[in-house]
């Protein structure tokens, strides 16, 4: 093969790398962004699970010192404040609904929602998370990730 023929072959292959990159890059970037979004879903779920567990641990003591309105010490507001404090800012973004299974109306926020001393209660929160990118939205019914986190504990003698 002469030098002239080698130059002609190299000139023909010169744009091949750019074309291959243009074909492969969208798939690679889609996969990368989807992985980041799925990791965010898991992070949100685990963070809220931690916040609910810490809120329930606070609830079993019967304390009310975290109530934002100290003139009306309400246990349920103090528990919600504990959950909000441990949720790393996700509580307000998710707008969760506390769903207490055991006592009375499961959606009513009141002083009896966590039971009395010695009773077992289940604290469950229903949350909705909008994925960070529109890539994962088609995989969920209404474009949002709906999940529940729960914990069960027994109240201490307070």
N- to C-terminal distance: 93 Å
In sequence order, what are the helices and strands, one letter per element?
A: HHHHEEE
How many extended strands? 3
Helix content: 40-55%
Mean pLDDT: 85
Question: What spatial form do the alpha-carbon principal axes imply?
Answer: rod-shaped
Radius of gyration: 26 Å
Proportion of residues in β-strands = 15-25%
Low-confidence stretches: none
Order of the strands making up the biggest sheet: 1-2-3
Q: Helix/strand-derived class?
A: alpha+beta
The number of helical elements comes to: 4
Main beta sheet: strand number and arrangement?
3 strands, antiparallel
Structurally, how many domains make up the residues?
1
Describe the model:
With about 160 residues, the protein is of the alpha+beta class. It has one domain. About 45% of the residues lie in helices and about 15% in strands. The chain is built from 4 helices and 3 strands. The protein has helices spanning about 5-15, 15-60, 75-85, 90-95, and strands spanning about 95-100, 120-130, 145-155. Helix 2 (about 15-60) runs antiparallel to helix 3 (about 75-85). The N and C termini lie far apart (about 95 Å).
């Amino acid at each position: 093969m002469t030098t002239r023929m080698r130059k002609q072959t190299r000139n023909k292959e010169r744009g091949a790398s750019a074309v291959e990159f243009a074909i492969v890059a969208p798939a690679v970037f889609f996969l990368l962004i989807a992985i980041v979004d799925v990791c965010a879903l898991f992070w949100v779920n685990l963070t809220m699970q931690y916040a609910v567990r810490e809120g329930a641990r606070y609830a079993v003591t019967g304390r009310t010192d975290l109530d934002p309105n100290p003139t009306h010490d309400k246990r349920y507001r103090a528990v919600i404040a504990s959950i909000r404090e441990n949720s790393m800012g996700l509580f307000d973004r998710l707008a969760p609904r506390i769903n207490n299974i055991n006592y009375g109306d499961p959606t009513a926020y009141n002083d009896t929602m966590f039971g009395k001393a010695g009773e077992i209660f289940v604290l469950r929160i229903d949350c909705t998370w909008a994925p960070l990118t529109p890539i994962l939205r088609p995989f969920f019914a209404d474009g949002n990730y709906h999940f529940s986190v729960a914990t069960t504990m027994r109240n201490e003698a307070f």
